[in-house]
Amino acid sequence: MHDILFTNLRLYPSTPGAETGAADALAVTDGRISALDAGAPARRRIDLGGRLVLPGFIDCHTHAVYAGNRAHEHAMRTAGASYKEIAEAGGGIFNTVQAVRKASLEQLVDGALPRLLTLLGEGVTRVEIKSGYGLDTESELKMLHAIGRLRQLTPQHLTATFLGAHSVPPGRDKSDYLNEVIDVMLPAVVSEGLADAVDIFVESIAFDGQDLQRLFAAAGGAGLKLRAHVGQLSDMHGVQTAVAAGALSCDHLEYLDESAVRAMARSGTVAVLLPGAFYMLRETRKPPVEQFRTHGVRMAVATDLNPGSSPIVSLLAVMHMSAVLFGLRPEEVVHGVTRHAAAALGLDDGAGTLAVGAPADFSIWNIADVDLFSYQMGGLGPDAVLIGGRRVSGVLEGATT
User: Block means of pLDDT (10 residues each) for the chain, length 401 residues?
Assistant: First the structure.
């Protein structure tokens, strides 16, 4: 006997090539999908009136915990300054670092929670959040503790990523600072169980491939998953280094050659596309989407929600951008925020799918098809969002028996 059975629905397929509506029912038991059978016995039945059911969306790359804003820098970019020029002048990440260091843990939590709940209202049931705006041991740990506190305040599944190697603080030698990240911060993060993964920004204004190798060796040995920001502003051949070191994903990827794409294909590394940053920074170099298709590299899509380069609290908006700016097809957009996003986080519990045994995290939409996400910007939202089979947003309407 199942807990609840949703009937008269169109189930979005979890595998390529399958037809929407191949299953027209979904049963939930103990928080997981327990059957795709309209005849399954259940304690409660709800008729969804033909609405579309989608897996819970996953925002697999965010910096959602921060303090302050950088609206003045956006004005500088509008006047012609580049991201690199602003950073080299002491702006960029360091403005947010100062704000985060001054903020209390409670202020960080209070600032981030409305962002997460806004994403929840769009059907986002899982969010990855990075540290990286502390850049000293005390402040990095404070950010990670804020993520832990947020887990108690939102029904969403939150994944924490330690990004101490986001940038080199002003006045610090890079090697000396990286030693602190590896020898002081990382052991503290691991001993307190504060992070699921580690990340690093490989770029001319941040760290290089050798730094990545050092950090990944220490983090992998401590049992953390590995991810990397690479190829955003230049090609430092960080993709090949990250892939060789075992990265689950490489994120940004505007600058890379086909040999790097082949390396990602061989390793199964996910390409995480971040069109919000591309849009806000007015970039012109696009990720090589056609090469990813040709070589079979999985593409995820995420907001990159942060106060500087992507202050966009909407996965739906970024999904639209991925289609219009990067040329992703409608099904690629949806897979990019479901099963491929789950792969970028190294999830193997069925997250991002609507399969028997998967978490019962899904959203219910009164739309004809997912093509609308690539066509219409604004005015879209699910009727209801469920996590573990429990409604956490919207109104769950339908004939109930």
Answer: 96 67 88 95 96 98 95 79 74 90 98 98 98 98 98 98 97 97 98 98 96 98 98 94 98 97 98 97 96 98 97 98 98 98 97 96 97 97 98 84 65
Q: How many CA atoms lie within 13 A of 330 on its CB side?
A: 13
**Whole-Å CA distances, 222 to 129, 182, 225, 243, 356:** 20, 11, 9, 18, 33
**One domain for residues 308 and 392:** no
For residue 181, give its domain range: 57-344
Q: How many domains does the chain have?
A: 2
| Same-domain pairing of 164 and 242 | yes
Q: How far apart are CA 237 and CA 259, in angstroms?
A: 10
Shared domain check, 230 and 111: yes
| Whether residue 249 is found in the same domain as residue 390 | no
Summarize pLDDT for 1-45 with one digit per residue, the tens: 999 999 999 999 765 555 566 679 999 999 999 999 999 999 999
Instruction: Specify the pTM.
Output: 0.96
Assess whether 185 and 166 both reside in one domain.
yes
Q: Are residue 373 and residue 255 in the same domain, yes or no? A: no
